[in-house]
Amino acid sequence: MTKKAKWIWRYGDYEIFHNVLLHMRRKRYGVPYPALWALDSVEPNVLFTKKFVLEEPTKFTVFTNGLGQVRVNRQLYPVGEEIVCSAGEKVIDVLVTNPRGLPAAFVVGEKVFSDESWFCDDKKAPMDCVGCSPAYYRAADNVEEFPFALKKISVFTKEETAGGCLYDFGKETYAFLVLENITEHTQVYFGESREEALDTQYAYLRETVLPAAKARLEKRAFRFAYVCGKQQPTAVYGEYEYLPMEKIGGFSSDDEELNTIYQIGERTLELCAREFYIDGIKRDHWVWSGDAYQAFMIHNCLFADREIVKRTITALLGKPPYRRHVNTINDYSLYLIVSAYDYYFQSGDAEFVRKIWARLKELYAFCVERLDENGFVCKRQGDWIFVDWSNTLDKDGPPCALQILLWKANKCMRELAVVLGDRLEFLLDGDALKEKIFEKYYDGERGAFIDGFTSGKRMINRQQNVFAVLYGFTNEAQTRRIVETVLCGDAPAITTPFFKFFELAALGKCGKTERVFEFVKAYWGGMVKLGATSFWEEYDPTKTEHYAMYGDKYGKSLCHVWGSGPVYLMINYLAGIQITSVGGATYEVKPCVNGVKDYTARMPVSNGWVEVEKRGARVNVYAMSAGGTLILDGKRYLIEKEKQLTVEVTGEMLERSTDEN
Amino acid sequence: MTKKAKWIWRYGDYEIFHNVLLHMRRKRYGVPYPALWALDSVEPNVLFTKKFVLEEPTKFTVFTNGLGQVRVNRQLYPVGEEIVCSAGEKVIDVLVTNPRGLPAAFVVGEKVFSDESWFCDDKKAPMDCVGCSPAYYRAADNVEEFPFALKKISVFTKEETAGGCLYDFGKETYAFLVLENITEHTQVYFGESREEALDTQYAYLRETVLPAAKARLEKRAFRFAYVCGKQQPTAVYGEYEYLPMEKIGGFSSDDEELNTIYQIGERTLELCAREFYIDGIKRDHWVWSGDAYQAFMIHNCLFADREIVKRTITALLGKPPYRRHVNTINDYSLYLIVSAYDYYFQSGDAEFVRKIWARLKELYAFCVERLDENGFVCKRQGDWIFVDWSNTLDKDGPPCALQILLWKANKCMRELAVVLGDRLEFLLDGDALKEKIFEKYYDGERGAFIDGFTSGKRMINRQQNVFAVLYGFTNEAQTRRIVETVLCGDAPAITTPFFKFFELAALGKCGKTERVFEFVKAYWGGMVKLGATSFWEEYDPTKTEHYAMYGDKYGKSLCHVWGSGPVYLMINYLAGIQITSVGGATYEVKPCVNGVKDYTARMPVSNGWVEVEKRGARVNVYAMSAGGTLILDGKRYLIEKEKQLTVEVTGEMLERSTDEN
């Protein structure tokens, strides 16, 4: 009938339902491996309602996912049949009961149709908004199926072995493997690496295929597929499943190594963009709040479409009451709060924040009620204090890093409360918290924050100091000292790509671009040299064995979203594009003019984008968004919308090291 | 393999899941009519665990309802395959993920098998117990199907009409109607009455049947089925679906009218005994806490098997946190607490109370946190203060009846807390509450409690005075005055069978047996005279029309559990059998010796039963339970187990009116 009608559901339940489905897909040696944490369930009995004022009689039909009942001013009607409705004020109620799926309703008619303007009553909480998606706009659409796109992909090379045939798809993918004309029980072993696929004992993902004219296997992460048996299928191909999003951002340069790193970073992010951002496509294939937080940072450089960010935040929030931290990790609850603020800052979309505000506040309250006598994040029963995997970090007692993260999360909540016009009484006193953190953790003599005060060891690791810089916790002088003594000093090196990303972002923020890209080339470039087609969960350049992890020979994820950091670093710190006010109403471009001779970078901003083109000493900026300022050599230039701005860089500046700026 | 293994689930989730299924069955004119209140959903990701110390290697197999994973000391195994397990200490974990049903596990083996000794971790609350039922003990058993029994029932009479054929099954039933050889689209109209079935416009339940060799319709409440069309099925019969329970209690006498009332009462209760006790089988076909509370009282007279009582309490408790009252009604939350105590008092089963204790306390806390400044139950947002349907009751402000019910519920919680060894700090001060109730509601001059104090009208209705007597709220003298001035006085008559049952129980408790059975015969006997084969939701002897209710021509339920009251009254007050301490460790038999010449009554007590046989002036008591005392004419006789006790009643006593005792 009309595309304005959309399937509607209790706000958040779509994400809760698909989140369970997503977390059921991981397998290890053929055995299912669902999430270690609690998953939530949808409300099984909900009412959708809207009041219409009809000037003339109208007709509409209701469809439901689950058992349905329609009421027009309390008069009962069945679903699936056209309802003729007289003129006047009409309250239209659709009740849906479904203990086996996602209760949802679809109302289609000229005047009466379902969309975001309806309300939902779950009969527990006060009346709330509904969720919907433009992907579900027909009666036949199934809200329990996620609208991925499919693309046929071909085998790149085929290699016969004594026991079967190894099919190489050329690069990491996430696809349904299709085998035609299987005549016998066939074992298939998947591999993110060649070694893994050929190792029939330890390949992480595997499947037994029964004889069939066409076998379409479960969707899996792989580059290689080893099909055992003499009777090989007559055809082997993949159906690549992906989330269609319009990519706006991009980067290219005359430095092929950087280009390759950038491309693989983009690919890695795209592969991990599923219903929600997951950590890695083979493993864990789970939604982790810390990993997602980094994915969002990178996502913002590429996509104006932020549906996946909203979905991921909503899925991670799940269903209150909160009895454990998000992913059971204290830090991850706080990252989720910061993510919600970042989403608002990037998009300017207060409406979304309003929809999740009650949940966000409940999560915040849960965090606050578990603070210790100093008002610090501490380990309570069932908590996991993560910070980072590190052999040197002193994790005895409340760690400094989490207190700075708490301060940041509190600041985010404050800003959101102001935006939503909520009262501020529920918030912690951020200044008092900051004072307490300085009192307990700041070592004035050494100019840095110690890991923790409980053990008395007064160790100085990077993590909390990275946060201090990244979150603007310290003043300019303090920041400078931290950068000197810790970030560019001899504090123990960070060993996880997770915190390395934060560290590089902090360095980038302080203008240490050369140091950042030195590391990017050494680290990510190292993976490229080893043949990576997506970035790994972990990479230690000093080792020769790269696939084992968590006690599994091929346990390491070779496609991990936090490996996509270079995308963020190139666009934010090489091209220097950054939003400076909510929704990109203003933004700055501070391109790095030394190091890389020629490059072009584009980032979505507000409803448009801005592109920076550096060609030797010339910088061209072209924007489809107003509000931009180009900053070069301390000078500021207005970027006018749809009008090219060209600035020549002085020779002096070109020769100066960025890091001395 | 072995019957000791049982399917296990997260404690309470079986009831939560089946509760949704049950509430999806009601229809009205073909349109589904699910419960008006919130229904709960099960936890979709749960872990079942138990530690075994194995002296020798053993084998076992795991089956799951949902996606499953097995871990033996963290080593992964798939479900459905035999696992060989070495000797030693083994923690066996079974993870089940299921967003579309009831997560459950079945572990079967010689030494390792699932039963009530396992634990469940839903990863939110602390580790908790599991639920199981002897009905599910094979791998093939489906925990999502309720184990009802079926019995073929035949048409009693068949009556041809111009438009079709009316099939009368002789009495109210709940069955799948089966029609053989349907050759055309056929409309079937059900009726609890003949009039309803023949009224194709207003019959509440109806179904369209497509041509089929054998059509088995949805299970429905009916006595009559009107099958329209010229091509009648070649055979019509029913499959009566019922809950198999061993009936121990019973009553018969030389008074045929009483016998008929008793039999119909039993039948009514049995028809309403589904997965849980429902209010009525046609309508609402819902689980209401107040109705269930009365059903439990009656149930205890007949059945030693109290599984349905536990299931109903568990289903009504649902899943915390509580944001609305049970069935949205303040009174109904309180009845549920009283029901839990009554269950314990009748059965002595503290284990069950321990399992629901956390939920019960949370529900109690929810009730308490909503009290007003006097500490009284009052109407808060979303509340429904029911008390009773009455035109005379002054419902302005907090009603007295609910404060006495609160006092009773508080007393029940206190006694349960003592049994479970819980601290008592969370409880209200019952004495202070009583004092406040007396201060605000007791009219010393009139010797009764007023309805409420808000309006200033100082009305005296029966409801709160019935509770004062029934719950032993008043002392002997106060009780006597209430009975005189209110219960046997001219306070407005109660008009609902719901509160009439409480009133008759209160009168029975005070020995007013004659008055009780006068009413039983007039009221229930009236329904019998009108041809009732089960007792009705409501009956007004002064009216000639009995089927309409709630604006529907056949809206009244003609099979309503609260109509079964006479069963309770006959066994508790005519035969006078009553438990006097927890679990029936002691009990009394105070048979009424005047009024009915001969009768026999039996009631389950503890692990056995007691039977009272009155034949004229002789009373025989035979018990399969120790702890009994026969009380006749103020004298006490020890009832020895398995030994008949005979006492002759004096002529004087036989002639005296019971109500003067």
Map the helices and strands.
Two copies of one chain form a homodimer.
Chain A: E1 8-10, H1 13-22, E2 27-28, E3 31-32, E4 45-54, E5 58-65, E6 67-72, E7 75-77, E8 83-85, E9 88-97, E10 104-109, E11 119-121, E12 128-132, E13 149-154, E14 157-160, E15 164-182, E16 186-191, H2 194-198, E17 206-209, E18 212-228, E19 235-242, E20 250-253, H3 256-272, H4 289-302, H5 307-317, H6 330-347, H7 350-369, H8 400-420, H9 430-441, E21 442-443, E22 448-449, H10 463-470, H11 476-490, H12 497-509, H13 513-529, H14 565-574, E23 577-579, E24 587-589, E25 598-605, E26 608-615, E27 618-623, E28 628-632, E29 635-639, E30 645-648, H15 651-655
Parallel strand pairs in A: 24-28
Antiparallel strand pairs in A: 1-10, 1-12, 2-3, 4-9, 4-11, 5-8, 5-10, 6-7, 6-9, 11-12, 13-19, 14-15, 15-18, 15-19, 16-17, 16-18, 20-25, 21-22, 23-24, 25-26, 26-27, 27-30, 28-29
What this model shows, in words?
With 661 residues, chain A is an alpha+beta fold. Chain A folds into four domains: 8-132, Galactose-binding domain-like (Jelly Rolls), CATH 2.60.120; 149-242, Jelly Rolls, CATH 2.60.120.260; 250-574, Glycosyltransferase; 582-660, Maltose phosphorylase, domain 3, CATH 2.60.420. In chain A, 30% of the residues lie in helices and 26% in strands. Chain A has 15 helices and 30 strands. In chain A, the strands form six sheets. A ten-stranded antiparallel beta sheet of chain A has the order 7-6-9-4-11-12-1-10-5-8, with no helix packed on it. In chain A, strands 13, 14, 15, 16, 17, 18 and 19 form a seven-stranded antiparallel beta sheet that branches. In chain A, a hairpin with a 7-residue loop joins β23 (577-579) and β24. In chain A, α5 packs antiparallel against α6 (330-347) and α10 (463-470) crosses α12. The longest helix of chain A is centred in the middle third of the chain and has 21 residues, at 400-420. Chain A is globular. Chains A and B meet through α1, β3 and β6 of A and α1, β3 and β6 of B.
